[in-house]
Amino acid sequence: MVNSGQHGIHAAFKLSRSHASGEPFTLDVDIQLPSSGVTAVFGHSGSGKTTFLRCVAGLERAQAGQLTVQGEVWQDERRHVPTHQRPIGYVFQEASLFEHLTGMGNLAFAMKRAPTPTSDADLQQIIELMGIESILTRLPKHMSGGERQRVAIARALLIQPRLLLMDEPLASLDHQRKQEILPYLARLRASLKIPILYVSHSVDEIAQLADHVVVLEQGIVVAQGDIGEVFARTDLNALSGFDTGAVWQGKLVARDEQWHLVKVSFQQTELWVRDTGEALGSSIRVRILARDVSLARTALDETSILNRMPATITDICPDRDEAMILVRLDCGQEVLIARLTKRSLDKMALQVGQEVWAQIKSVAIVR
Amino acid sequence: MFTTADLDAIWLTLRLASIVTVLLLIVGTPIAWWLARTRSWLKGPVGAIVALPLVLPPTVLGFYMLVAMGPNGAIGQFTQALGIGLLPFSFWGLVIASVVYSLPFVVQPIQNAMQALGERPLEAAATLRVGPWERFFCVVLPLSKPGFITAAILGFAHTVGEFGVVLMIGGNIPQETRVVSVQIYDYVEAMEYGQAHLLAGLMVAFSFVVLLGVYGFQRQGNNSMLGVK
Of the N and C termini of chain B, which has fewer Cβ atoms inside 10 Å? Predict the structure, then answer.
């Protein structure tokens, strides 16, 4: 794979059109993206995230656009490099395999057009990474949705892209298929050196895969930054609700064999988490859903809750649900979000600046 | 059994249909592609012109072709200027008339197949470094194959089955323009019903087998490309 350059990606697009429904839509973004890792473009349907990705690929042409990728201009006032001349890989939302070619035929289609010959070892590595060895002789119509998508991802890698674009690659799959592919995507992000732009409306997928997050609402960037930073915000419509939760990056420091737990250490706190087999010393990302965090005024001794810590209330925000409220907490360096009923808030007379005990009912290791 | 004249007519018919089919695929493919992709207002008018032979009596079509290919017609003056002479009542005149007459039977199945592809395979190809021309040859053509097969079969069969246009343009010249359908007409005129039965039966069997093949192929491919008739 090609090394990423020193420069990042600068993308500015202005595009307006009317939807088939007659509703006008405007995309107006101007963002700088990192040149490595996974950048998730997140938003609800109709937020313009797919349009944004298609503009980056050149499949759609913004009326006014400026796109520079690692120092190379792909679009400006005078120029619009056509899609087939951009060094990208693209994974579409639904399978886009060529139906007349077998799995291997689809891979060969990409290899034939890649800028440099693909070594057998590289091919083998990608086939293994995606776990598609056994289905390569089949035609796409004889593959499951998940299998087709894995072949499509392998094909996008074999074109040797310098930027990988993924448009909700899991959206067309049912829950089980999603769970089947997510580990492959996680492996992919770990083994690829090129930047990935990953469009999704699934908080779960993003929490698991992204390093950097851009949140789009109605064609406008409402938040962007490191995943921990963005997920710690309580003022984002797109992120509030059932799935709201903080993402923490830590390190596995101890293992308790007897109780099948591991200790993950963060900047100033520690959590005990169910042991899922990660090695000691490995970097761990956990997600703490706001609905799994409750607050107490004092440290309770007799409780089934394993993880609790002192915290300071820094903000109290409305939730999308009338009955609920989001409370933002500082636990040393880390930010925690708790989702409580308004009644509890009132009963406990919680206020910004107050010291409380946060009790964390469950913590999920996302990677 | 078949007389020499019958065999001549059969051979001529097959030769005519083969040449016409090849020409139709060459002429029809770009027309079908344009009709499948264009957003121009011309799509309606051009589509209607291509479909005209479906509804016009062959005599009307044959009449205008005869005039156009005649000494004062545009095509006639062009062929005379080229030194080919005049096309009516010649095999090649018949070929050109047949291409026009069978055009919708070839354009429509190909157009349907190309329309059914949608945007996605082309976009996928573009993201795999495939330029516009190569996209057409490496993606559109192979993916539209079922449409081409249906188009070729229908174009061939329809040319074999034509009569009115042949009579108007080609007349009844042995080994030049006397195809099977005309030969049958001659037998009936001459009250030779036995010979007429033989050739007519052959045509029925041939047409049945062809249509059976088309429908069987479509069911197998699970697509409905027979967008005409």
Answer: N
Query: Which residues, in sequence order, are CB contacts of A191 under 8 Å at separation 6+?
Result: A129
| Residue B50 maps to a domain | no
Interval B26-83: pLDDT, tens: 999 999 999 999 999 999 999 999 999 999 999 999 999 999 999 999 999 999 998 8
Q: Which residues of A touch B129 (CB under 8 A)?
A: 84-85, 113-114, 159
Name residue, tokens 């120092």: A71
Per residue in A102-128, pLDDT (tens digit) is 999 999 999 999 999 999 999 999 998
For residue A88, list chain B residues with Cβ-Cβ distance below 8 A: 127
Q: Does the residue B46 lie in any domain?
A: no
CB nearest to B142's CB, from A100, A110, A159: A100
Q: How far is A139 from chain B (nearest CA, A)?
A: 13
Residues 6+ apart with CB under 8 A from A349: none
Q: Which amino acid is at A229?
A: E
Range of the domain at B75: 4-37+56-221
Sign of the dihedral through C-alpha A248, A252, A255, A260:
positive
Cα A42 to Cα A213: distance, rounded to the nearest angstrom: 7
Cβ separation B120–A100 shorter than 8 A? no
Q: Cβ separation of A92 and B130 shorter than 8 Å?
A: no
Classify residue B136: in a domain, yes or no: yes
**Residue in A54, A102, A113, A160 to test binding to B, most B beta-carbons within 10 Å:** A113
Determine, for residues A83 and B127 on separate chains, whether the beta-carbon distance falls below 8 Å.
Answer: yes
Mean pLDDT per 10-residue run, chain B (229 residues)? 89 95 97 95 94 92 92 90 88 93 95 93 96 94 94 93 89 87 92 93 92 80 45
What's phi and psi for A295, nearest 5 deg? -120, 145
Residue type, B157: A
Report the residue of chain A nearest B130, measured CA to CA.
A84
**Is B137 an interface residue toward A (CB < 8 Å)?**
no
Q: How many domains does chain B have?
A: 1
- Kindly report the CATH number assigned to the domain that includes residue B93: 1.10.3720.10
A114 contact residues in B (CB cutoff 8 A): 129
Residues of A with CB under 8 A from a CB of B: 57-59, 82-85, 88-90, 92, 94, 96-100, 109-110, 113-114, 155-156, 159, 165
**Within-domain flag for B15:** yes
Whether complex ipTM tops 0.90: no
CA proximity to B177, closest of B120, B106, B80, B97: B97
Question: Which residue ranges form the domains of chain A, and what is each CATH number?
Answer: 9-231 (3.40.50.300), 245-365 (2.40.50.100)
Measured over the CA atoms of residue A275, residue A276, residue A282 and residue A288, the dihedral's sign is negative
